[in-house]
């Protein structure tokens, strides 16, 4: 029988075949690494704390501010609702005697828990003593609603609450 498979010689492995196989293998590995590095750099929003050392130094001041805030017994309520393409935020702030707080400024931020590039500062307008309203661009998901109440440039109150926008 002429030309049968039983008579065929196995294909010889040459140096050229090994070279091209190695180049192809490492080329695929390098391409996948390049894709993964690019995706990681583009999607990483940053760390929560720029400097752990500076955050540690500020910790004692934050503890003292939290103690002073607790001693005031302020009641601050916030409401976040979706209104079309916006998230409407309303804040009511009362003192220990349930009277609206006067001479305060509300600074509000919607902070994304995993990507600080998505954080939004919300412009709040006073609607009367202790009553503030503002709007932010609506983005579904989990957010931290950070409320700071300042008086005379000094932070008197801070609240950080997780909200889910749907």
Tell me about this structure:
- 30% of the residues lie in helices and 39% in strands.
- The chain contains 2 helices and 7 strands.
- The protein has a 7-stranded antiparallel beta sheet with strand order 1-2-5-4-3-6-7.
- The radius of gyration is 30 Å and the shape is elongated.
- The N and C termini lie far apart (76 Å).
- The mean pLDDT is 90.
Short description:
The chain has a seven-stranded antiparallel sheet with strand order 1-2-5-4-3-6-7. It has helices spanning 15-43, 52-72; strands at residues 75-83, 86-94, 105-111, 120-128, 131-137, 141-151, 154-165. It is α+β, with helices and mostly antiparallel strands.
Q: Keywords, please?
A:
single chain, 166 residues, alpha+beta, 7-stranded antiparallel β-sheet, 30% helix, elongated
SSE arrangement:
Elements: H1 15-43, H2 52-72, E1 75-83, E2 86-94, E3 105-111, E4 120-128, E5 131-137, E6 141-151, E7 154-165
Antiparallel strand pairs: 1-2, 2-5, 3-4, 3-6, 4-5, 6-7
Radius of gyration: 30 Å
Measure the end-to-end span.
Answer: 76 Å
Structural category is alpha+beta
Major sheet: arrangement of strands: 1-2-5-4-3-6-7
Q: Residue-averaged pLDDT, rounded?
A: 90
Instruction: Name the helix and strand elements from N-terminus to C-terminus, one letter apiece.
Output: HHEEEEEEE
Can you tell me the overall shape? Answer: elongated
Q: Kindly state the number of beta strands.
A: 7
Uncertain runs: none
Give the % helix: 25-40%
Main sheet specs? 7 strands, antiparallel
Strand content: 35-45%
- How many distinct helices? 2
């Amino acid at each position: 029988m002429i030309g049968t498979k039983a008579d065929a010689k196995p294909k010889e492995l040459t140096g050229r075949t090994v070279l091209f196989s190695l180049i192809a293998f490492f080329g695929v590995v390098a391409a996948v690494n390049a894709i993964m590095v690019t995706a990681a750099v583009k999607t990483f929003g940053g760390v929560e704390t720029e400097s752990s050392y500076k955050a540690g130094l500020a910790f004692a001041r934050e503890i003292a501010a939290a103690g002073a805030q607790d001693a005031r017994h302020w009641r601050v309520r916030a409401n976040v609702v979706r209104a079309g393409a916006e998230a409407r935020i309303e804040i009511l702030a009362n003192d220990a005697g349930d009277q609206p707080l006067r001479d305060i400024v509300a600074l509000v931020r919607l902070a994304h828990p995993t990507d600080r590039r998505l954080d939004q500062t919300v412009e709040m307008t006073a609607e009367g003593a202790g009553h503030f309203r503002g709007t932010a661009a609506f983005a579904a998901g989990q957010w931290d609603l950070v409320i700071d109440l300042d008086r005379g440039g000094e932070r008197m109150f801070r609240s950080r609450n997780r909200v889910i926008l749907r």
